Amino acid sequence: MKTSVTRYVVVVDGKPGTYGMYVPDMPGCTSMGNTIAELLVNAQEALQLWAEDVLASKERLPKPRSIEAIRKDAEVARDLAEGGVLAFVPLVIETGRPAKANLSLDAGLLAAIDDAAAARGLTRSAFLASAAREKIAAEG
């Protein structure tokens, strides 16, 4: 089964100091941050919490619209004209169900991973999952 990360377009208000964002495809899904980087991390958490609420209600998540469709939205167009910008934010929904994966890594890299995991009090799996989350978050 192939899965991919779903990415939603968010509108960032573009006002330095405390940046705000909303997700046009997820009504009521908003977040804030003191920097753009902080905002985008907070946005991922907001998307995840919003999605968890929807799924807990046995509803379906809205399919993300294309950036072109989002730009045509009247509210979004107004916000862009006032200095807002668009960004993609990944939605990763954890199921709480572990799955085995067979990975091939260089032996030296694997040893470094094990050392880094041990230094943080983590298992190899927890360390790799954390690293993957951070990479997805950083690159959207």
| Overall outline | elongated
Give the ordered list of helices and strands.
Answer: EEEHHHEHH
**Major sheet attributes:** 4 strands, antiparallel
% residues in beta strands: 15-25%
The average pLDDT value, as a whole number, equals 87
The first-level CATH class name of the largest domain: Alpha Beta
CATH third-level topology of the largest domain: Double Stranded RNA Binding Domain
Distance between the termini: 22 Å
Helix content: 40-55%
Indicate the low-confidence ranges by residue numbers.
Answer: none
How many H/I helices? 5
**Secondary-structure content class:** alpha+beta
Strand order of the largest sheet: 3-2-1-4
Count of DSSP E strands? 4
What is the second-level CATH architecture of the largest domain? 2-Layer Sandwich
Q: How many domain units?
A: 2
Instruction: Round the Cα radius of gyration to an integer and report it.
Output: 18 Å
